[in-house]
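Bench notes, afternoon.
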Amino acid sequence: MLLLGFIPLLAVLTAGSFGAAFPQHALRKGCSLFKYKFLVPHETKAMQKMKQHFEDIMLLSDRKCNARLFHRKWNPAELSVPDRMMLVEAELDLVIAMLELPADPSFTKTRQRPLAFLSQAREDLRGCMATGAPSHQPSGKLRHWLQKLQMAKETETTSCLEASAIIHIFQVLDDLRCAAFQEQCI
């Protein structure tokens, strides 16, 4: 009989502990970017393996590219949180589209894990954007970069866009990390 009274008390204490460990703002429904603050080593290793494999393939080609999409005079930490999310969403859209292109069978296998990870990140990011500021208008800096991205999509070859996206994959991951840290990104 004493044990039956203890179980509800234990449930209340446990729930209270979880509430203190996870503040309410961190549990916003539809927004879970916490796991992108610190990438697990096997995901980082898969990204590095993919990038290296792509660079090895690229050495055998004669690509001449001028795309400088990822060369910016500003840091994503200078942007507002909604701007950072819009930036990362656009970057992820580009990278995912490039990774979904038909490729050499060995590269197709190498890119599977990074593609799955990045697709999940984009889905999680979109969930946060839908609950955050769904009608946010980008700042001048971001708007200029988005225009540059659109122009590159219209003028650069697909192979150059692919090279730019994959070679700068760790910059995209850093931008994702910054978006995950929200106000604490420095």
